[in-house]
Amino acid sequence: MLKEFQEFISKGNVMDLAVGVIIGAAFGRIVDSLVNDIIMPFIGALGGVDFSNYFIGLSSAVNATNLVDARKQGAVFAYGNFITVALNFIILAFIIFLMVKAVNDLRKRLEAEKPPAPAAPPPADVALLTEIRDLLARK
């Protein structure tokens, strides 16, 4: 069983998947920090847009003015939190789009700078026929 596990874990696709998950998690933290620490403060400074405390109390006992206290008082319909998460997702998706676009543009530029691959030699029969033609042309 141990040998079978070693064979499984040493396969390339398992290691590639593990590396992808680790890099993906790190990339997620980078993008999350970009949104929360760099972009959202500018948006907050421009208009102070924060929908997280928009809610509707679902019982008469709810009379708090912020979501945390309102949830302690009873059931609430917290639509503002959903709006905030949706806006964060849209911003995040746009940033990832810009990053992927930049990487794709860089790849295209690097591929354009590569010299073209040398032409493949013709098949043996074509080469032989070409040689015969050249010999006949000289006679």
Summarize the structure in short:
With 139 residues, the protein is mostly helical. The chain has helices at residues 2-9, 12-47, 67-73, 79-113, 124-138; strands at residues 56-57, 76-77. It folds into two domains: 1-49; 50-138, no CATH class.
Number of domains: 2
How many strand elements? 2
Number of helices: 5
Fraction of helical residues: over 70%
**Proportion in β-strands:** under 5%
Q: What is the average per-residue confidence, as pLDDT, rounded to a whole number? A: 83
How are the strands of the largest sheet arranged? 1-2
What is the CA-atom radius of gyration, in angstroms?
A: 31 Å
Termini, distance in Å? 74 Å
Could you state the order of secondary-structure elements as H and E? HHEHEHH
The biggest sheet, with number of strands, parallel, antiparallel or mixed sense and barrel status, is: 2 strands, antiparallel
In terms of per-residue confidence, which ranges show pLDDT below 50 for 5 or more consecutive residues? none
Judged by helices, strands and strand pairing, the structural class is: mainly alpha
- Broad shape: elongated
